[in-house]
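Work Package 4 report. The design task specified in the project plan requires that, given a folded chain encoded as structure tokens, an amino acid be chosen for each position. We show below one input record used in the internal validation round.
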């Protein structure tokens, strides 16, 4: 959940400090409670500051650092020790011979710390990371050169880590990864290393994805990747098919709003080449799902809501499927066999809870598939098969377009698993991007938010496929407004939550179609109306829902299988405008990080 950037250039190349700041600002979605940089020089120049990147910017004497072409930077989301200048990375050894940035968790740090303290080392921070520069320094003291010192230190640590280090008097960067992302960028004059491609996409679109256990040495002259025994590793350079513009705000006030508006494009990308209308076929060329038995979905947060949605679709198609919260999933409680297909749903592909669940399922003999947005992510390495949702980079911490893309990808998966896709299903899937566009063009969510902002709490209800969407609507609302918001299965209201409903707690109901499910939700709407709660309905106008509502958010009438994907967009916009009216930090909500790489 921290972000790492490194740039190694030659004399006369671009100033590292500019590249580092640009990279850190693209990585702030990974954490933003403190940040720091170290420039390779003699002596090393290290600057750190608590708070968002601007705090670091005002600390760094950028003009004095011109001409330095190699350095590392870090943006932090605290795990060990509170946000503070001292706990910010980079961390150095006592004599400042080496500076280190790290993403992940060093599990055996306490015993290493005790050992180092016993040898007389004084620690300057509460972090697990600080053991690394001190371990490296003890190797330097024993006469090792920088590279073997780095390797031997890494040998001593256990846990998940992406680490980058610069040494006093050296012009390169040393790096390593294990269960935390680290990707290389290959520019003309400068080589980059980062937690994620957006950090250097403005400089180069040529990338190398490192594998767990690989070490790298970057200089202005090139990149050398080696395995844990020091043997050279052949790497392939890939070209990513998006550019800096894709990770900018493109004129929107927030990434979240931009990403909500990108949904039609994202969904078209998700469908591209995978559906054949004429033959009524879904082709998921990248994964073979033959003979899959029972399906278990594992995921967290928004991705868990998508998993609930996917499991419900599978069951409708006659395939037994259950969705589990990944942190609650263990194979001793939830048995698997070789016929079980465990499907991880994870935007980042780096979520520790989901990765652990997938690895455990794989070890217990299940087949594993990950549905992810992130090419080369840890989950793609941990699983037998991968299906990409192809949503493009998502920077806003609150997941939006990736949820819609997960819903659509899981619709394809459920169809492929059951072999039950018809011409009509595919035609209606293809219509979803345009239907979302029409919601984006006509939504009254802003006006409704203006009426309801300041309410005590917000409740969201739905049934069947609209139930996960109600949960997601509430999650979006609480994440970015910091107000109490909860989602319920509409039928559950009367079993307890109704006690919370007052004239100051709007209830947002997702009611589509005009079948028995819609009619039952109408009864639940009447229950809350009788308690004076303001009622917002998200409806396709087929039922009488609009008659009982104080506010209506319309969606086009569409196939009952897809309408929840479209309806969700109204809930995203409603949450966005509430938060906007409240002046909240929308793209970087309080206490949250985009990628949660600890359990
Ligand atoms: C909510 C949100 C989180 C993530 C969750 C899982 O807006 O973004 O709830 O969905 O942390 O993340 P991934 O999908 O990367 O595994």
């Amino acid at each position: 959940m921290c972000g790492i950037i490194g740039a190694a250039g030659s004399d006369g190349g671009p100033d590292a400090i500019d590249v580092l700041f640009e990279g850190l600002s693209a990585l702030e979605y990974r954490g933003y409670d403190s940040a720091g940089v170290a420039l390779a020089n003699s002596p090393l120049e290290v600057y750190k500051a608590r708070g968002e990147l601007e705090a670091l910017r005002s600390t760094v004497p950028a003009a004095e650092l011109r001409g330095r072409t190699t350095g590392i930077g870090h943006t932090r989301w605290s795990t060990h020790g509170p946000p503070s200048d001292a706990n910010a990375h980079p961390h150095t050894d006592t004599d400042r011979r080496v500076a280190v940035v790290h993403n992940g968790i060093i599990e055996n740090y306490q015993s290493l710390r005790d050992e180092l303290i016993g040898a007389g080392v004084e620690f300057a921070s509460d972090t697990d990371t600080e053991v690394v520069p001190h371990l490296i320094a003890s190797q330097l003291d024993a006469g090792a050169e920088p590279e073997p010192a780095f390797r031997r230190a890494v040998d001593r640590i256990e846990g998940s880590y992406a680490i980058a280090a610069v040494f006093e008097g050296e012009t390169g960067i040393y790096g390593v990864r294990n269960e935390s992302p680290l990707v290389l960028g290959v520019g003309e004059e400068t080589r980059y290393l980062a937690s994620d491609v957006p950090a250097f996409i403005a400089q180069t679109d040529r990338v190398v994805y490192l594998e767990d256990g690989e070490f790298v040495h970057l200089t202005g002259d090139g990149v050398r990747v080696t395995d844990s025994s020091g043997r050279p590793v052949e790497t392939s350079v890939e070209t990513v098919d998006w550019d800096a513009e894709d990770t900018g705000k493109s004129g929107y006030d927030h990434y979240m709003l931009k990403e909500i508006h990108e949904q039609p494009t994202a969904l078209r990308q998700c469908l591209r080449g995978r559906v054949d209308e004429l033959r009524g076929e879904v082709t998921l060329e990248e994964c073979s799902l033959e003979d899959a038995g029972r399906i278990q979905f594992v995921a967290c947060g928004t991705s868990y809501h998508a998993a609930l949605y996917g499991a419900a679709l599978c069951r409708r198609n006659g395939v037994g499927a259950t969705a589990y919260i990944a942190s609650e999933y263990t194979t001793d409680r939830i048995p698997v066999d070789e016929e079980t297909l465990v499907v991880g749903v994870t935007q980042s592909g780096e979520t520790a809870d989901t990765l652990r669940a997938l690895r455990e399922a794989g070890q217990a003999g299940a087949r594993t598939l990950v549905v992810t947005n992130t090419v080369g992510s840890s989950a793609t390495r941990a699983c037998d098969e991968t299906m990409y949702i192809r949503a493009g980079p998502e920077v806003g911490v609150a997941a939006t377009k990736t949820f819609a893309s997960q819903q659509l990808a899981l619709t394809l998966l459920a169809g492929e698993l059951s072999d039950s896709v018809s011409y009509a299903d595919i035609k209606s899937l293809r219509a979803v991007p345009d239907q979302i566009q029409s919601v984006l063009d006509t939504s009254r969510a802003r006006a409704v938010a203006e009426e309801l902002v300041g309410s005590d709490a917000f409740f969201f209800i739905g049934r069947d496929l609209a139930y996960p969407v109600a949960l997601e609507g509430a999650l979006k609302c609480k994440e970015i407004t910091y107000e109490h918001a909860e989602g319920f299965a509409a039928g559950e209201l009367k079993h307890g939550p109704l006690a919370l409903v007052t004239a100051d707690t709007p209830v947002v109901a997702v009611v589509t179609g005009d079948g028995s499910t819609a009619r039952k939700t109408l009864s639940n709407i009447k229950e809350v109306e009788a308690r004076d709660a303001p009622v917002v309905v998200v409806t396709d106008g087929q039922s009488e829902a609009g008659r009982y509502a104080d506010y209506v958010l319309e969606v086009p009438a569409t196939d009952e299988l897809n309408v929840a994907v479209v309806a969700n967009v109204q809930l995203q916009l409603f949450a966005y405008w509430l938060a906007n009216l409240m002046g909240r930090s929308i793209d970087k909500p309080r206490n949250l990080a985009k990628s949660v790489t600890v359990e």
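Residues 313 and 344 are 16 Å apart (CA to CA). Validation will be extended to a larger panel in the next phase.
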